[in-house]
Amino acid sequence: MPTFSLSFEVRDYELDFQGIVNNSVYLNYLEHTRHKFMQELGIDIKGLHDRGLDLVVTRMEMDYKLSLRSRDQFMVTVEIHPEGNLRIVFDQKIIRLPDEKLMLAAKTTGVCLRNGRPIRPGDVPELHKFGFNL
Q: Which domains does the chain have, with CATH numbers?
């Protein structure tokens, strides 16, 4: 599956007293991009939830490389792949533009729950779009 990307601009209210993006804001950038990626593929997260299916994050690994500053333009990329029978992994990067400097690399691991219990992603027809055909 090809890499999905979404462009952003740093907003001043996302900065801390040092004039750099607060570390917690990066989580929002990453999550928003994952959601837009799934939306682009026609996956309705709310619709899944209404059917008793939830995609939940179980682990976040983030390597901060450089800091974003006010009005920086950047893009967030996402690629997805399975890990074992239950886990879904989103590999993500935040890249400053136009110099294409890597600002952050992240690995987000999640699972699909049916009524609170883990299930194989391949058991959810919508997730076949990601190549989960177990």
A: 4-130 (3.10.129.10)
CA dihedral (9, 12, 16, 19) positive or negative: positive
Given the residues 16, 44, 63, 123, select the one marked as catalytic: 16
- Judged against a pLDDT cut of 60, whether residue 134 lies above it is answered with no
Residue-wise pLDDT for 106-123, tens only, equals 999 999 999 889 999 888
Q: State how far the Cα of 7 lies from the Cα of 85, in Å rounded to an integer.
A: 32
Active site residue 16: yes
Residues in the chain: 134
d(CA 72, CA 28): 16
